[in-house]
Amino acid sequence: MVLDRLQQLTHQVNATAPAPHPFDPLTTGEIDAAVALIRKEHGPVNFNAVTLYEPRKAQMMAWLSNPETAPRPARAADVVAIAPGGKVYDGIVNLDEKKIVQWEHTPNVQPLITMEDLQEVEFIVRKDAKVIEQCGIIGIPPEDMHKVYCDPWTIGYDERFGTGVRLQQALMYYRPHVDDSQYTYPLDFCPIFNAETKQIIHIDVPSVRRPLSKASPNNYLPEAIEKEGGFRKDIKPIHITQPEGVSFQVNNRTIDWQNWNIHVGFNYKEGIVLNNITFNDKGNVRPVFYRLSLAEMVVPYGNPEHPHQRKHAFDLGEYGGGYMTNSLSLGCDCKGAIHYMDAAFVNRAGASTIIKNAICIHEEDAGILFKHTDFRDESMVVTRGRKLIISHIFTAANYEYCVYWIFHQDGTVQLEIKLTGILNTYSLNPGEDTHGWGTEVYPGVNAHNHQHLFCLRVDPNIDGPQNTVFQVDAVQGPGEPGSEENKYGNAFYAKKTKYTTPLEAMSDYNASTTRTWEMANTNKLNPYSKKPVCYKLVSREVPPLLPKKGSLVYKRAGFARHAVHVTKYSDDEIHPAGRHVPQTSGEPSNGLPAWIEAAGPDCSIENTDIVLWHTFGLTHFPSPEDYPIMPAEPMTLLLRPRNFFDRNPVLDVPPSYARSPSQISSGKSDCGCQKNDGSSVLV
Amino acid sequence: MVLDRLQQLTHQVNATAPAPHPFDPLTTGEIDAAVALIRKEHGPVNFNAVTLYEPRKAQMMAWLSNPETAPRPARAADVVAIAPGGKVYDGIVNLDEKKIVQWEHTPNVQPLITMEDLQEVEFIVRKDAKVIEQCGIIGIPPEDMHKVYCDPWTIGYDERFGTGVRLQQALMYYRPHVDDSQYTYPLDFCPIFNAETKQIIHIDVPSVRRPLSKASPNNYLPEAIEKEGGFRKDIKPIHITQPEGVSFQVNNRTIDWQNWNIHVGFNYKEGIVLNNITFNDKGNVRPVFYRLSLAEMVVPYGNPEHPHQRKHAFDLGEYGGGYMTNSLSLGCDCKGAIHYMDAAFVNRAGASTIIKNAICIHEEDAGILFKHTDFRDESMVVTRGRKLIISHIFTAANYEYCVYWIFHQDGTVQLEIKLTGILNTYSLNPGEDTHGWGTEVYPGVNAHNHQHLFCLRVDPNIDGPQNTVFQVDAVQGPGEPGSEENKYGNAFYAKKTKYTTPLEAMSDYNASTTRTWEMANTNKLNPYSKKPVCYKLVSREVPPLLPKKGSLVYKRAGFARHAVHVTKYSDDEIHPAGRHVPQTSGEPSNGLPAWIEAAGPDCSIENTDIVLWHTFGLTHFPSPEDYPIMPAEPMTLLLRPRNFFDRNPVLDVPPSYARSPSQISSGKSDCGCQKNDGSSVLV
Predict the structure, then answer these.
(1) What is the DSSP-derived secondary structure letter of residue A673?
(2) What's the rounded Cα separation, in Å, for the pair A38 and A81?
(3) Coil, strand or helix: which one is B558?
(4) B617 in contact with A at a CB cutoff of 8 Å?
(5) PROSITE patterns of this UniProt entry (chains A, B) (predicted)?
(6) Residues sharing a CB contact under 8 Å with residue B120, sequence separation 6 or more, in sequence order
(7) Do residue B375 and residue A118 have CB atoms under 8 angstroms apart?
(8) Given this model, what pLDDT does residue B669 score?
């Protein structure tokens, strides 16, 4: 009924200030206004999140198609707060009417752990008598406690403590010197922190103790490299410049580039959210995606020894990909002409805060877009491509995730993720066997096997919201070699399987058929191929969830059980592991499995408004070259138009060089066109 | 015994001119010398190939390890010639001793089809009475025969004509205007050309005729685009410049870059061949690969209707990736500071010829190499990477293959292939059903389903030639959730299976275990992980060969039956579909299957000199956006060092920005180091 109430609410346009776009993240002013209203009505609470309560889709679609006359969706804030005593409240504030439209106590959940929550643990750990005692046992004297560090993680789920008490586990490390990397000196015990009482309530101590490593530091910061002989001097500069500026226009948060139009949103959990993505097809603005985001991820570690099973971070749902985003103010992360966007959040005390340059938007040369040479006369064309990259980078304790949303001129959308940063490490005694659950990447340093499984949420809008998902398998034709129908045995075709229900749509990757998935609009056929217009998901890094069926991770990360799930669209189904992820037991499994159960696994997802959830990623068995800091490992997937366009949509990109048969036969080999970098054609 | 004879031969260093490196392709002078010797002894022959007869590995390894005193391998030419009457001769000429050491008639084979062979067919087709008759039947009057074109292909294998007679099949097209793309006007019949008699000996005519399409042209050259409204004008220039030049040194054909040392060879079949690839690991020059090349490929089409089964081109073995290589003299294919290399070949008449700028060598910025920020104090490092790209582009009739050998600073070797150019097309009547074997990409234009399957030949030299291949599968640990050994069900590990014989090594990709393959030196363990040093093949675009077991393609393309084969090294095993590919029946299957059979499928490939053959590629179901010219579709694989280095080997690459905890606490946040583009650090 919250929904109903909001359906009614429409935005009163403020005559003086331009109203934010309904998809825009909350401004600091809006955050402050929401906080003030809640303070006023509900007194002192700690704020966990104040973020955009996204416009209801039905109302938003109406407004998008008719912004002049359709009611403008209200600006609203989605609030998570923790009252004294740890009571969690979920609220919605209508900012146009300055009214709290929802304020509900949500029992037995834990909202995500903020950076502020993380920051306070280390100081408490250092002063805790039992921690000091444990440090002593492995060889760290009390006077060295300032050299003890910890990466606080949400506890995930520990059946001994359940969900009621807000907890963190402290992964312990040591730094001989403040500039040393602590990951070379992992400590073998794990304190558990109560976020309400600010106390260490328990310490998990292994049966086999592992004294502090005596190995020399293994560092990556410049001072250490200088000591080791310094930096290589044989790299000559590459300058990338755009003297005339960029090829895109930014109107507030809406970007126009090479026929694409994209609204760039951002929130504390998912980070970048791309909305209302359209492609201008020869003057016809065609909707492609209503919303794209990285909605969740899980990083299960493969060491079965207690308490390592607790290491399976949901970095988005438990910490927030937005909250952990790097400020790119220092530059150096991108080259060329960069357009940055900031990100606004609330802090625990209710003040609005800003991450400067949270989002980087820039163009890159994309190499050859297309080329052909006629072998007869060397008539030819070669055209270079461009790409638009919308990126952010977030740091999850030891690890870095660089997220690149890449738009290509030919209608392809690419999601690339680069993994870098530092391996999570645990201590290993000299000569101790890792039992294959990890790799000794440096003396005394055990880097455990792990997976990075991401969940891409695709809300397709392929020429409208009425879409259908097909599984496409490359298969052999009928008939054995020698048979009449397949005499030479070479027949093969694309076998398409329509998903009519969420149950059918629970599907895994199949490399033997190089499986892809098509999001199609069956109401619109390509005039030439007579096939439905669609976008195809091409994704090859699709490992299965390795934790077994019935395991803790399997239960908590329901979205990761299959490469693809498809659900009927629902406004409130954004987070596939649930709204509040920390300390969920997985019984029942929140998010996708619960939604599918509730809507009915046999409900129709055919020719209707649907959402496709894609789990992809990689399995990482560490090796010494990943240490002490990991060279970036890239991973990518594509969303490609198929039977969507009547024709290659980039033929009008100016070629670098072209010459026609008649130009050659007449001795003229200059195409008379410009290179697409503006300089004149080479002949 | 040819081999024995050559083992003896060593190079007499010419005091005056510097001798070519033993891996260097033949110079024009060497080609001319070989031709002269053969002319003198064997009179008039047509030359099909005169290329480097590669040094025998044993001798070459000895020389590489001791160039001062070990005998220098002889320069020798590998010759293929066709004598009058079509007799094929395989010869070897020792260029140092000016002596023909082998000249053998090879019965019942057909050497590859050269560009000269292809060029002559169209003229003959246009004059052939029966072709003119067939054109008339589908609506092309005799006076328009100059508008008739053909793409001549090797016939592949047609049981009606066998191997004895040298044949080509002419895929027929029509151009309304000389500047129109003929692929929009495919003709429905297929003449067969006898290369000896220069006659059309047969025409395959379909039972259902397909009159010439009346559709308007669908073109991509600038004049046509201008007529349709011209080029987009909203692309601003991106300039990529290297004011201080490139970061690599080229010594003849040997490249030094970022600890890599690579010899760049080139031949008419494989195109780029990379030899003696080493990595300087802190002063220790370590061998990595003896030889890398794209050794073969096959492009099976999936339409079972006769005669389309003949469309399964082996573009390297049947035409030559080197022979078909584009001259990049016109530039525009790469940006930045480019180093080019030419390619020298022989023509039919025996004259040496040159393709200018056949190979492009350049550097590119590679984005973030590594980054980490400490959430405590925002101490951090971010370092940008570089890549070195050695590339060539070849045109196989309608199609373009852009081949990029990419070297990364962290020891990774990447092979990227971009597919572009034009779809092979066949005619379709209005309303005719494609039966799913193709897609109507434009009225009357049927683009058939096809695969592109490439065979990467890897001759590993991982700290020496004694290598072993392991299959690595990510698998779940033993014990169900709740069991003592795997209480939380999260156990997983890397299961390694040693290949001891070629039979065991015949393996396919398995996505459910994200299978990789390791080329390891089991004689050398990583000091920390205690695992063998190795390079891992990470390849995800690995479709199975879709033509069925026992099919024509299955028999002819034995290499494509599995993702991986491993063989014991043999000097003469380079071409996995055999030395002479055109018109092979596949009975027996040449190349890999024959070699494995001959050496014994159970011979040992453990801890010895081995070669890994990897088949990868993609399955292409065309769609209208691929037409009239295809936006480049990329495909990539990685060869990554694992347990090879003691540590991340790029820590000494100057960071773009860094600041240490102590710098921050002391208020200094400038790392005092240079950005790796030479400019000073941002603060």
Answers:
(1) -
(2) 10
(3) helix
(4) no
(5) COPPER_AMINE_OXID_1, COPPER_AMINE_OXID_2
(6) B198
(7) yes
(8) 61
B410 touches chain A (CB under 8 A): yes
Q: Percent of chain A having pLDDT more than 70?
A: 95
Write the pLDDT tens digit of every residue in B104-146: 999 999 999 999 999 999 999 999 999 999 999 999 999 999 9
Residue pair A532/A525 in contact (Cβ under 8 Å)? The answer is yes
Say which of B290, B319, B399, B569 is annotated catalytic: B399
CA angle, corner A632, sides to A629 and A633, nearest 5? 120
Going by pLDDT thresholds of 50, 70 and 90, the confidence category of residue B682 is: very low
Torsion over CA: A132, A135, A139, A143 (sign): negative
Instruction: Please report which confidence band the pLDDT of residue A670 belongs to, taking 50, 70 and 90 as the band edges.
Output: low
Interface contacts (A, B; CB < 8 Å): 549
Rounded to the nearest 10 degrees, how much is the dihedral formed by the CA atoms of A213, A215, A216, A221?
-70
Residue with tokens 């009057």, as numbered in its chain: B141
State which amino acid sits at residue B148: V
Q: Of B404, B414, B409, which Cα lies nearest the Cα of B362?
A: B404
First CA to last CA distance, chain B: 69
Cα separation of A315 and A401, whole Å? 10
Query: Is B399 marked active-site?
Result: yes
Phi, psi of A39 (to 5 degrees): -55, -45
Chain B residues closer than 8 Å to A587 by CB: none
Q: Is the pLDDT of residue A270 over 80?
A: yes
Name the nearest CA neighbour of A104 among A78, A75, A84, A74.
Answer: A78
Q: How confident is the model at residue A669 (pLDDT cuts 50, 70, 90)?
A: low
List pLDDT tens digits, range A87-128: 999 999 999 999 999 999 999 999 999 999 999 999 999 999
Cβ atoms of residues B316 and B344 within 8 Å: no
Residue A5 has pLDDT above 50, yes or no: no
Does residue B368 belong to the interface with chain A, where contact is any CB pair within 8 Å?
Answer: yes
Give CA separation, B392 vs B350, B387, B416, B424, in Å: 25, 16, 11, 22
Query: Is A624 in Cβ contact with B646 (below 8 Å)?
Result: yes
Dihedral pair phi/psi, residue A124, rounded to 5°? -70, -40
Residue numbers in B near A493 (CB within 8 A): 302, 436-437, 449, 621
How many whole angstroms separate alpha carbon B646 and alpha carbon A628? 10
CB contact (8 A) between residue A375 and residue B393: no
**Mean pLDDT within B549-562:** 98
Q: Which of B24, B315, B609, B626 is flagged as catalytic?
A: B315
**Which of B300, B531, B645 faces A490 most closely, judged by CB atoms?**
B300
Strands A284-300 and A271-281: antiparallel
**Cα separation of B619 and B556, whole Å?**
19
* Residues contacting B673, CB < 8 A, separation 6+: A222, A231, B654, B655, B658, B681
- C-alpha–C-alpha distance, residues B578 and B561, integer Å: 15
First to last CA, chain A: 69
Residue A520: which H helix or E strand, with range? strand A516-525
Structure tokens at A223: 């001072």
> CA A509 to CA A217: how far, in whole Å?
42
Q: What number is the average pLDDT over the span A521-547?
A: 98
Chain A hits for B658, CB-CB cut-off 8 Å, are: 221-222
Whether the pLDDT of residue A331 is over 70: the answer is no
Please report the DSSP string for B185-226 in residue order. SB-S-EEEEETTTTEEEEEE--SS--PPP-PPP---SHHHHH
d(CA A557, CA A548): 12
Give chain B positions within 8 Å (CB) of A511.
509-511, 540, 542-543
Considering only CA atoms, which of A442, A430, A448 is closest in space to residue A182?
Answer: A442
Please tell me what DSSP assigns to residue B242: -
User: Residue B177 corresponds to which amino acid?
Assistant: H
